[in-house]
Amino acid sequence: MVKAVILAGGKGERLGSLTRRIPKPMLKIGNLPLLEHQINLLKKYGIKEIAMITGYLSEVIESYFKDGKNFGVRISYFKEENPLGTAGGLKEIKNKLKNDFLLLYGDVMANLDINGLIKFHKKKGGIASLALHPNDHPQDSDLAEINQDKRIASFHAKPHPENKYFQNLVNAGLYALSPKIIKYIKRGAKADFGKDVFPKLVSEDKIYGYVTAEYLKDMGTPLRLAEVRKDYKSGKIFRLNRENKRRAIFLDRDGTINDALRDVCRLKDFKLLPESAEAIKKINGSEFLAIVITNQPAIAKGLCAIDDIEKIHKKMGWLLGKAGAKLDAIYYCPHHPDRGFTGENLSYKIKCDCRKPEIGMIIRAKNDFNINLKESYFVGDSWRDILCGKKAGITTLGVKTGKGCRDGNAKPDYFFKNLNQAVNFIIKKIK
């Protein structure tokens, strides 16, 4: 049986007077303390053995929850006399952690399909699986980078250097861990997972990133606390669980988000179109997912390597993040069926089910995010985008940028000047 550890010892100094007499995890979201929401989430997925690591005003937590019986769980406590960071306390309760377990930061409001994280962790078989998600401010966040197998290849602590682009994936404060991780923690010493433990594990063991678009937000500042409370009141926190169908706005890349009439192969050639960031920020403000679906045949043609495309996508995510926008996922097809290009990569010269107008990438996104295609939209500048959307049963919107949908006979359901106008139409249409 999977157990859970909740780190509930923080002072919450950034919350000022709100945490003078009450510990941060006990602040109310709706009518319940944040910790009770976390316990209810764990209980929903059958996790009823919980160890709380406490510190500041621990008596408030213990007097409320006691042994957990009244909440349908069993709770044990370890109080840190001196703060040990996010990792140090685990060493003190190692005897309780004989099998894989979940660890959740006590200031994170979460509503995600925990079974999905557990299944991912078991399948990968690593020492740790971290819930990761893109955010709209990567430049001031600690970031992780993953490879195509979802293995974490590096961590980048803030602040980040200028003119360098990183993958927009943020540590969300929820992990599935093997008890083997405790050997990397020194007893009695303050240690932080993000700064001390995980970076070391990158070279010494296998850690993986579980990328999710579900609700995970820390409420450690007054502004974030207000946002969480607003999201709870509106029902947004509930709706974003992967068990519920989501709607998406699928976006072509070249000619729709960035300026391009031909293959973009070099980092310096990638430039966002005016208003693209504004448009994607509006998608983020709705409950639509923002997902890029793009053909990148330059890989098959030998004009660039997969690594080059990955770097361009990091730049795209970074530029959008600086403007307060984010993409929930990027899917790309590296294939091209026609041969005869100088220097072409024959391993990618195949007829596939992912190259638009085929719908393989959309089906992958649908399965990854539990998307309702009938209530989703596809915005693009080419006949391939429009036909792909139609094949998938998605409402299609063409834009005049890029190819302007002048390169074929597939006609969009609607036609707009640019991505921003298309997004305005979608959001106005659903209100």
Task: Please tag this protein with its features.
seven-stranded mixed β-sheet, Spore Coat Polysaccharide Biosynthesis Protein SpsA, Chain A, alpha/beta, six-stranded parallel β-sheet, 2 domains, globular, Rossmann fold, single chain
Mean pLDDT comes to 95
Gyration radius from CA atoms, angstroms: 23 Å
The number of helical segments is 13
CATH topology of the largest domain: Spore Coat Polysaccharide Biosynthesis Protein SpsA, Chain A
User: How would the global form be characterised?
Assistant: globular
What's the N-to-C terminus distance?
A: 44 Å
With strands numbered from the N-terminus, the spatial order across the biggest sheet is 5-4-1-6-11-8-12
DSSP summary, beta strand count: 19
Q: What profile does the largest beta sheet have?
A: 7 strands, mixed
What's the CATH class label of the largest domain? Answer: Alpha Beta
What do we call the CATH homologous superfamily of the largest domain?
Spore Coat Polysaccharide Biosynthesis Protein SpsA, Chain A
Short description:
The relative contact order is 0.10. The protein has helices at residues 34-44, 58-65, 85-88, 114-124, 193-204, 222-234, 236-239, 276-285, 298-301, 306-322, 360-369, 383-391, 419-430, and strands spanning 3-8, 28-29, 32-33, 49-54, 74-79, 101-105, 108-111, 128-133, 143-146, 152-156, 170-177, 207-211, 215-218, 247-251, 288-295, 329-333, 377-380, 395-399, 414-416. Helix 8 (276-285) links the parallel strand 14 and strand 15.
